[in-house]
Amino acid sequence: MQKKTVKTGLGINFKKVVFFTKLLYRTKSHHRNSTYKNPITNDEFIYLNLSMKYNLLKNDNVNIAFFMKFTNLLNSKIYHVGDGTFDKVPQEPLKISFGFNLDF
After folding, report:
1. Is 81 exposed, middle or buried (0-12, 13-18, 19+ CB in 10 A)?
2. Interior CA angle at 96 toward 95 and 101, to 5°?
3. Which of 2, 57, 10, 69 has its CA nearest to residue 29?
4. 11: phi then psi, degrees, rounded to nearest 5
5. C-alpha separations of 23 from 15, 28, 49, 83, 93 in Å
6. pLDDT at residue 77, rounded to an integer
7. What is the mean pLDDT of residues 1-16?
8. 78: exposed, middle or buried (C-beta count within 10 Å: 0-12, 13-18, 19+)?
9. pLDDT tens, position by position, 26-72
10. Which residues pair with 13 in a beta bridge?
11. Residues paired with residue 24 on neighbouring β-strands, in sequence order
């Protein structure tokens, strides 16, 4: 079985708003110690991130922007292949972060 990975992203700027999405699709992956008799694999998954930014003020002296980021927006259950001790190692669930940037 071949490991296949697709990565893509799309960014949109509209006036003061910026949107950016990032998508990752990966089929089953084998651990380096995986064999035909004893396969050690993870499940395929889709991972989607979404970032949004609003530029409140942007000029030569100061930039103020608010942002929100969704990591693993679909809350996909993602596991990396373990090392034999752990069969599958769980990864990051849905995470939402937000804040502001101040540049001067």
Report:
1. buried
2. 130
3. 2
4. -120, 140
5. 24, 17, 7, 26, 15
6. 84
7. 88
8. buried
9. 887 777 677 778 777 777 889 999 999 999 998 889 999 999 999 99
10. 18
11. 7, 47
Side-chain-side CA neighbours of residue 3 (13 Å): 12
The pTM for the full model equals: 0.75
State the pLDDT at residue 79.
74
Q: Are 50 and 73 in contact (CB under 8 A)?
A: yes
Start-to-end Cα distance in the chain: 52
Backbone CA torsion sign across 63, 19, 96, 9 = negative
- State how far the Cα of 64 lies from the Cα of 79, in Å rounded to an integer: 37
Q: Is 72 exposed, middle or buried (0-12, 13-18, 19+ CB in 10 A)?
A: buried
Tell me how many degrees the CA angle 65-47-69 measures, rounded to the nearest 5.
Answer: 15
Asked if 65 contacts 53 with a C-beta cutoff of 8 angstroms, the reply is yes
Q: For residues 25 and 17, is the Cβ–Cβ distance under 8 A?
A: no
